[in-house]
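Help!! Second protein's tokens look totally different from the first
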Amino acid sequence: MRPKVIIGAAVGAALCLVTLVLVIILPASETTCGAGTPVVPTATAALTEPNCPATGSAAEAGLQDGALRVLRCTVARFGMMDMRGLVADDSYPDHREGRAVEFIVGADQAKGDSIVAFLQENAAAFRVDYVIWKQRTWTPGAASGISWNPMDDRGDAARNHMDRVQVTIKAAAATTTVPVISPSVSLAAMPGAVNEAGRLSGAGRRQYPLAAGTFTISDTFGSRGGAHLGVDMAASAGTPIYAASDGLVVASGPASGFGDWVVIDSLDESGRRYSTVYGHMYDNGIFVRTGDVVTMGQHIADVGSNGESSGAHLHFELVPGGRLTGGHQVDPMAWLSGASLPTATVPNCENGFGTAGGNLASGKVPAELEIWYRRAGSLCPEISASLLAAQGQAESGFQRGLTSPAGAQGLAQFLPSTARSLAPDGQPYVIDADGNGTASTWDDGDAIMGQGRYMCAIAQTVKGWMEQGKVQGDLTSLTIAAYNAGEGAVLASGGMPNQVPGHFSETRPYVARILAAEAGFRSMGSGGRFVPDAAADLGPQIASAGHEWLGTRYAFGGGGTQGPSNGGFDEPGFTAAAVFSASGGTITLPGTAEQQWEIGTEVPLLKAAAGDLVFGNFGPRGPATVGIYLGSGRMLYAEPNGAVTETPLLNGMKARRIGG
């Protein structure tokens, strides 16, 4: 039922709707998916936009033309109401720029729904960028076909938009190149990197990540036979590292080869996607976390010499298309000096760019589920999209409609009582993530987002116990175990559940199965580790991949295809990780030295080549030691009670070649 309006407003509405009929068939001003080339609005579109009567509301003051039209036409349709327009507050960038209007409906949820439907129907005519309503955002033309996105809880009904509809209009197209800006320039008046809906917005600003005079270029892009995919900037340890551009932190912390890294996703002034990557910092020298919004020139880290580093320096990369989402590094020097960003072809518009969920490899889960795993994998740094996908495979095999003998339901196999229980944010774990009006364990988005919410809550609980010394072990493994057996089982066991027979027959195999499968869902290189070249020989790449974990500590039972676990590697865990990484995820070695001895072909030690596996300490059941041959009588292996190290071969070792 539509609300009544006064006669004058009704006439205005009629004129407005006639105009809408004329323009609704015109193409919207959207960016071509993946191409990075914006479609410029036509003069015809600009001339035929709706022009409804003035309202006399103070909310009109300072609005840009597009936002002013939305306000006037919405009032013409639904009558006067409380509204908010221009706000001089940097916390609300779209309001500050005059591109946003809020229609405050209070408890009249039906009116809010009607306003949203009106804005959706006429999104092209109004040049709608996004709509916020009921703690969700809607964006026109989402490539996945799923336009509503859940938002984080902002603490109250107004900030969660439970009582108001916000519409933000697209910014005017840029007509000039944005200049290079130094850190000394005031940032207060510059555009933010993320809009009020939590999405990246293009600014195009960039600067060097180290201040002039504090560094020298110690290694160039493409050196080491083309293997060096960044620029090394030598500087004293502790030298401040600045964000090279506005953006969103999508990775922060340990990364193989880098020691620790930071990855920031950004958009240029034309809406093209790119990442900047900062490597070799120490963990106590990083000052941003995954999910943080950063501004160009912000102090994000200090120079270190962590990982595969021969001295204090910053390894800096520029990756059109995104470091976690299928992009490829290019030489950053021209871009730092003001050149345009090279065009990149990326898999699709919903491939996780701008979220930590980018680590999910494309095509590994059913297409309609991919966006949900990416979103759920961006809820907290401890839980990745690839881990949730591996867990989803173990729980349901991605089959809908399943009910377990214990009553667990849907893709994520939630018990109804768990689904309804409250998360730390005060909402049930399973919420109405897909926006269809019902929170259900049977709905794809609700189930997967609920899975992510529950796993994040478990991880925080287990992490707290670990910090208190109540449990020991690998955080990821214990979180998975708690999902299966309950958090109480982890606490009672002081780590991996061991209280009842089912913990050994069900929970532990469940954890092992998910950890083994996770790497198969992960985009290669998304954790900073070795990215293989399918055209190159496998052996040298196994040696290169192994080198990336040099110095990683020994941990009994640690490691495998997922990389380190339990805080490190044992011997077969290390070789399994290197072979899996070097083969692009196509070769999975078993978990013991004896079993790995059965894989591949034995070669005489005198003919062994870099990347062959070498075995020693043979007993009745086979070898007890395994490492990676480097040549010249040396190997890499996870030394018991030590770390991954380079050392001479042991007496009596034998070699096997993997993959031919």
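Here's the second one for comparison:
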Amino acid sequence: MAETHYIGGWAPGQGCYALAEMVGRGGFATVWRARPVDAPRKGLLGRFGGEQEVAVKIIPVYSSQERSRALREGQIAEGLRHRNIVETLEVIPGDLEIYLVTEFVRGAPLDVAARHYTIGDVEDVLIQILEALSYAHSEGVIHRDIKPQNALVDDRGRVKLTDFGVAYRAGDTRLTQVGYAVGTPGYIAPEILDGEDPTELTDIYAVGATARALLAHQPEELPPRLLEFVNRATSPNPSHRPRSAAAALKVLTGRRESTGTTRNTKKKGVEKRETPPGWYTGQVLRVVNGLVAGWLGYLGAGLLFGGAEALGVAAGFGVLAYLLPRLAALGVIVALAVALFRSQQAGLGFATLLPVVGGMWIAAGSMGQGTSRLPLGPLLAIPLAAYGLGAGLPLLLGTLMRPLGAAFTAAAGALSLVVYDLTFGDGVIPYLGLDLGDLPVALGPADLLQAGEALVQNNPQLPLLAALWAVMAGVVSLAQWLGQWALGLVLAAGGGALGYALEVSVTPEALGEAMTSLGLAAIMYAVVMYLWSKVGG
């Protein structure tokens, strides 16, 4: 049985801690998971309920200068209390080491946690880091080594800054030689390399460099506001950067002031943090996805069960699609294919291709934040067309999604509408005026693919409709990014009308249907965006 090692407890007022296992190793220190084993006079054990784990950073010291630097790190960190900063509980000086006792964060370093982040997730992380820095700067502390490895993400997604080993506090004597650059290559501000003193702008530059590192593998084009933040924060000229962490938050989010910096946390006991950007849009996407999943679940269950059971299935799929959009989307598509096959309303070909194509689409959800939260978005074309608003789907998707995801989803929506009308509708494609008859749903997979290929070759209006919807959705979304939604609406609606008139609609009746649908959708979009702009959305 391994021997348990203890630290602390040898001086009045110190806690005693049992080291459990090493959880981290750096160039100058090791970090251990530990547990308190007695009740120190500072009341730390009471804070943890007696059993909660802590982290102990062990810093070896071989000179008086190293001891001063380690004690200084502990003293600086011990004075900071913020929800986005790892809380330092106790500093214990030893003969050959300094022990920093901190809260134990269950999670992963930011560089590991961010491997599967969306752009929206990266934005939220940057906001939390800036909130922590805004507070630290207000206490006169410059971190000087901001990078993904020095931020921990707990199991709730909260970011906590750590490692204040090279922090600079106003009024302190510098422990590094003049002209010696402190920090990590790639994250050090240019003026530090020129020998200037660290300032708040030093940390702002490092946050910008951190943003570049986290966004390096994102497949999407960056939103204009995020791109502006990164470019300004990493400007070689300090005067071009945001003047403070609070100003950087304004650039990143458009808010007038910081969203979570509090100097009186101990007095109030509760910190209030505003909703991160994109949260409301994400919730709308999830809700719409849940509604579509519930609708599909009801249709599929209605083929096999009674009304009450169908409603129960619909409710279950709806809730699941809100919580786990992509997983539920795949489940409801597979379930619908099985229900169609068992009810003999579709053959093996359709029952096979439906989940295959649906699974490929859901797997491609990484093309945009919207597609991952609204994977069933293309199927909205079917009910919207039934109520005369199908041509408005590109406007809806352009409002909710980023350009790439909106364009692909709108194109897939047009194809979904065509497939539905060929298989379960009357064979007349809305907004085109093409009467293509029924596509036999009992065909096998190969025959079904051949029939679809022949339809596309003989009727070029089908892919043109998908392309038109993709362009309209992309224009609307891009215009919103640029803050010119009215111009985007004019271009999308005007271009859509020309597209229908010149290339897509083949009969006057179909053209009139398309113009009416597009006009109604444009009016609804304009009203919503006008009201949204008035309330500061």
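Reply: Different proteins will give different token patterns, so don't panic. DSSP finds 21 helices and eleven strands in the chain.
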